[in-house]
Amino acid sequence: MAKSKKSKKKVINDFDRDDLGNIIGNKNLEGRDLQKFVLTNPTTGEEYEFDADALVGEDWTGMSQNADAIFSSEEIEKYYDKAIDMKLNEANDFPDGLGSEIKHDWIQEIWNKVNPGVKMLSHRVNNNNDSTRMPKWQMNSWTGNQYTIVLFLTPDMQPEDGGALELWTPNLSDKMKALACNTLYTFGSEQEHNQDLLYSFWPRPGRQVVFDSRIPNMERPVNGDKSCVSLVFQGTNKGYTPESTDDVVEEIDYSEVDFSEVE
Known about the structure:
- It is a single chain.
- By secondary structure, the protein is of the alpha+beta class.
- It folds into two domains: 3-55, no CATH class; 64-261, q2cbj1_9rhob like domain (Jelly Rolls, Sandwich).
- The protein has three helices and 14 strands.
- It has helices spanning 73-89, 105-114, 174-179, and strands spanning 3-6, 15-17, 23-26, 36-40, 46-51, 64-67, 119-128, 137-138, 146-152, 165-168, 197-201, 208-212, 217-219, 228-236.
- A five-stranded antiparallel β-sheet has the order 6-12-9-14-7, with helices on one face.
- The longest helix is centred in the N-terminal third of the chain and has 17 residues, at 73-89.
- The protein is globular.
- The protein starts with a strand and ends in a 27-residue tail after the last strand.
C-alpha cells in the first residue's frame, strides 16, 4: 500500500535508471527501506512511497488483453446460474469476497481455463445491477506483478445493456501520477493532464479481460433492470510456479482490442 506525506521543502527526485531511461529505483536513500520507492511531486513537495515492485513493467498502461469464446454458451449459462445462486444463498458467508482459495468446483473449472499464469490473491462474484449508481474509478493494486482477470457471465447481455468495463489513464490523481513514473502520464510529462479512456470492453457473454491491476478501472452502470454478473480474480506472477504438470495453464488466444467496441 502506498503512503504519501507533505514534505517541508521541495526535493529534487534523484533516480537510478536503466539503459532505456526507465526509473528502476532511488539514489541516496540513506536510512530508508530499500524495498520501497519514493517519488516527490516537484510542484507541491508531496512525497509518495510505494513498494519497489511498483516499478516493474516499465510503461504498463498498455497491458490489457481480451479473449472470447473460451467457453460454450451452455457453460456460460451454467456458470451464470451458479453465480446467481451463490449471490442469493451464500452472500452473507463471503462479505469480503471469496478469498485466495477456491472452494467451489465450478469456479475451479473456470480458473483452470482463464488463469493467464498467476497465483490467485483473491476472487469474488460481482453483480452490477444498479442502473442509478454513479460510476467511479478504482485502483486494484498500487504495486507491480499483479493482474485483474474478469469473466463476464450474463448470457443475454448486449452492448446496449451497459455495464462496460473501462480502463483509464493513470493520471486521475497525483498519487496515480507518482505511481506512473515510467509512463506518459507522470508529473511533467506530455500527457500529465490528458485524462482519457484507454479501452472499453462491453460485457459480452463469456468474454475474459486481463489487465495490469495498476490501471485505473471503472464499471459503467447497467441500463434498465439488467444484471451484469462477472467473476473477478486478482493474481500475481511473482513467485508463481505450477504445482504440477496438471496445473500448466492452457495458452489463451487473446485478441487485439476491437476499437469498434470502444464506447
